[in-house]
Design a protein that fits this description.
The chain has about 60 residues and is mostly helical. It has 2 helices and no strands. Helix content is about 90%, strand content about 0%.
C-alpha cells in the first residue's frame, strides 16, 4: 500500500502535468488556425474534463 503523503504528492504532480498539457493545447488551438471561436468548443470540453480530473484527485487522495 502506498503511503498517503506519497499518493497525494504523485497524484498532485500527475494532475498538474495533465492540466498544463491540456490547457496549453487548448490555448494553442485557440491562438492558431482555429481562432478563438473555433477553439471555444475544445476549451469547454477540456475545462469540464479537467474539473473531472480534479474531482478524481480529491476523491482518491483527500476524501479517503
Amino acid at each position: 500500500m502506498i503511503a498517503p503523503v506519497i499518493k497525494l504528492f504523485t497524484a498532485g504532480i500527475g494532475t498538474l502535468l495533465v492540466m498544463i498539457f491540456v490547457f496549453g493545447l487548448a490555448e494553442s488551438i485557440s491562438s492558431g488556425f482555429a481562432g478563438f471561436w473555433g477553439g471555444l468548443p475544445f476549451w469547454v470540453i477540456s475545462t469540464i474534463i479537467m474539473l473531472m480530473a480534479l474531482y478524481d484527485f480529491y476523491d482518491e487522495t483527500i476524501r479517503k
